[in-house]
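Bug #77: duplicate submission created two jobs. Keeping one. Sequence:
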Amino acid sequence: MVATGLSCSEDEPCPVYLELANMQAAGNKLFLVGNLHTPTTTLFSILLASEDAGATWTEPHPRIRSAGLDQIQFFDFQNGWISGANLQGAPRDPFFLVTTDGGKTWRQRPVFDESRLASIERFWFESPENGSMLVDARLDNAKHELYDTRTGGESWALRQASADPIRFPGNAEPAASGWRVRADAATRSYAIERSEGERWQRAASFLVAAGTCKP
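Kept job's structure:
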């Protein structure tokens, strides 16, 4: 509460909500990314993983304070990346979570050496080493920036900066995985669903209302 500037009390606790931004299947493993937040403040990032088609879930990486996770890509069953940023105020200090062991462990890698007001618009890896990334740095220098990496996201090199939107190179569209995360207004939850022919079958669900914050 002190770190995030929240003023919650026993009589008026702050509601905490789960937001799931994306999901990815890697073989028989499922990964969900998002954040936990109050109506005014992002509290923590969250990464959820399942190895049994959604029956049970774990958190393979510690929650990151004031951060949110957004996009996720697995190139193969071993190499994966998740984009994130600090969401306290304007998005800043973008980073990646990187795995080379199928999501068992993840390493956090900052995009920049210094603090910047910026966020990752889009990224895509065409191999375990080579990838591209678009950064929205308009609050920092009024520009969009295009980077590439030859080190699997360990370091990035600036290729283009422009005040106008930059076209993302290549055909960066994920293949259909047969899984989706869907906000279900009726149950106020996120439904994790698997495609079965022309129907979607629910495998798991997570309530949007995650709890309360109080002294």
